[in-house]
Amino acid sequence: MSDVYDVIVIGAGPAGYPAAIRAAQNKLTVACVDEWRNTDGTYAFGGTCLNAGCIPSKALLESSELFQRAKDEFAVHGIKVGTLGLDLAAMQKRRAGVVKTMTNGINTLFKANGVTGIQGHARLLPGNQVAVKGPDGSEKMLQAKHVVLASGSTPIRLRSVPHDGKYIVDSWNALEFDAVPKRLGVIGAGVIGLELGSVWRRLGSEVIVLEALEQFLPMADQTIAKEAQRHFKKQGLDIKLGAKVSSAAVAGNAVDVVYTDAQGEHSVQVDKLVVAVGRRPFTQELLAQGTGVELDERGFIKVDEHCRTQAPNVWAVGDVVRGPMLAHKGKEEGVMVADLIAGHYGEVNYKVIPSVIYTAPEIAWVGLTEEQVKAGGRPYKTGTFPFAASGRARAMEAAAGMAKIVSAKDDDEVLGVHVIGPMAGELIGEAVLAMEYSASTEDLQRTIHAHPTLSEAVHEAALAVDKKAIDGVNR
Ligand code: FAD
Ligand code: NAD
Question: How many domains does the chain have?
Fold first, then answer.
């Protein structure tokens, strides 16, 4: 006999576990199956995000930034510290503790909402049957009216750079180093490359980042990208653009990396090499023959705008489907699907998904870049405000960067908001809400912002769009 549920969710990452919780809130019977095992062999809910992504990386970014500020900035504040030391073991213990608290929290949430959490590998069979292989190897059959596939993604590996988990590593390994590498190589100047490169640079590594593209952060507004590149260079991140890695080989306790750029072939030796060239959808042993679920040419599960797959009552959400690989995008898809299954309204506004890069200065944006608006041909206007003119940023000794707004000339609609500076990821929340409500620039201009706050920079950028900035020079 199969156990029968209204909904079975496969994967308990930030796309799957919210789907399970919302489905239970909608009074459906729900099981959520996950196979994630941490390096110590223990099972844990939370997926990549909680175990090996968003949360551990932010824990280390915070610790390493505090270390760097204590080293380089406390003196400016008039704070004297004795000899500053790094206890990496303690830092890593804190990181692991934060992860454990958060992943245990999912067990609590499952219990509180009545979700049956199951540890093991799940495979979808035709007819919405799900075979679950448990930790002891035994197989159990489950049956559901609806199945939600939320199996996530996995790092892309390069054939010419053979992963060994010790010297040539992925982002998960790079979060768990037990010593600061003297020389760290990173392939890929994307989000992971910049965040993890920053962590280890701040803790003392010499960091070289090899990026195949000629353009830095092509997905970001280029005013912001240029500002970011300048800061990262100043911080000592050696970012080589147009650098194509042809080989990497472990030699003794180091890695020899060969790459070519416009100047020709180069070789560099590093102690660890992190491959951060993107992630691919993970569907290994997920789908039995005959389920009707189809993959596209890049391996993503094919879905419509409501995350329906080609198979009846089978849905897919998160990194395993098209769209940005972001935890909050997956979460909203999971919630949407759980609401649709229950017969409620559900939708995701894919035009208003914020992006944040948690470097210092932080980078965040929502909506269109100036380059995208220009290419679309719609007449537009822009306004910027530098944090150098923000009283709060000055008081924080964090006056780098700017806020920039791109608005439509015809009806004043806010089309994109771009911030590089302190707490940019928090500041972007206001812009997301404004765009979700189709705000005009004037709406932002007429909204009162507390003084002195960093959010005044967004307000002043909105004023600057119409050359009405008070605290900045209108250009
Ligand atoms: P995952 O989180 O990958 O979860 C999928 C789960 O499904 C896993 O637990 C997996 O074990 C399980 N699973 C897969 N197949 C099966 C099966 N057949 N049976 C049972 N279980 C299965 N995003 C952000 O928005 N902000 C950030 O700051 C951020 N930082 C990141 C930092 C790093 C280093 C990395 C690697 C990623 C980061 N991301 C960040 C991306 C984010 O982690 C992903 O977008 C997010 O985790 C995707 O969620 P998901 O639920 O779709 O998949
Ligand atoms: P990414 O797509 O952000 O960046 C990969 C970079 O590697 C790109 O710049 C690409 O041009 C480059 N690249 C690709 N192949 C290369 C090669 N052979 N040689 C040199 N460079 C090469 O991917 P990522 O940094 O690996 O991150 C994976 C996913 O995780 C992303 O989709 C990202 O959204 C998500 N993530 C998000 C956050 C966040 O939201 N703060 C943090 C980390 C990861």
Answer: 3
